[in-house]
Design goal:
It comes from Oncorhynchus mykiss (Rainbow trout). This protein is α+β, with helices and mostly antiparallel strands. It has six helices and six strands.
Length: about 140
């Protein structure tokens, strides 16, 4: 997936081959760790999936509202709906610059020592890992205006 927020869409690569010789598929939308990423970094796909999840749970609560006390309804909302809304919000808050200071310190913009890429690009610094698996983990590079 190529992330591109405002520039014209770059040409898709013809094929990307892995070390074992298999070709990677190019996709416009990808789910990674429960967050839907699209090539425009708009999070609209992620929000639509959240809406459908929440709608089904609110429907259950609405259909069964006479069965629960007020305290039970609040508990069900806290346990079933709020975690859906909270999961992944750190990512898009950080991208918009609206994260609290204690989270902003963990997700910071990388500043390269040499200017080899466009100034409209964002690279996120990934915390240091002690294992080789951690060092090779997910990294995000986004074209930003």
């Amino acid at each position: 997936m190529l992330f591109n927020r405002s520039l014209p869409a770059p040409a898709r690569p013809t094929s990307i081959t892995t070390l074992d010789g298999s070709d990677l598929e190019y996709v416009d939308i990808y789910k990674y760790l429960g967050v839907w990423l699209d090539c425009k970094v708009s999070f609209q796909t992620h929000i639509k999936h959240l809406q459908s999840k929440i709608k089904s749970r609110v429907g259950f609560l609405f259909r069964n509202k006479a069965s629960f006390t007020h305290a039970a309804k609040l508990t069900l909302i806290k346990l079933t709906i709020l975690p859906i809304l909270d999961f992944g919000d750190v990512i898009y808050k950080s991208m918009l610059g609206k994260a609290p200071p204690y989270l902003s310190s963990l997700v910071t913009m990388a500043t390269p020592t040499r200017s080899t890429r466009s100034s409209r690009c964002i690279s996120l610094i990934i915390p240091k890992a002690n294992t080789s698996f951690g060092r090779l983990s997910f990294q995000m590079y986004i074209v930003y205006q």
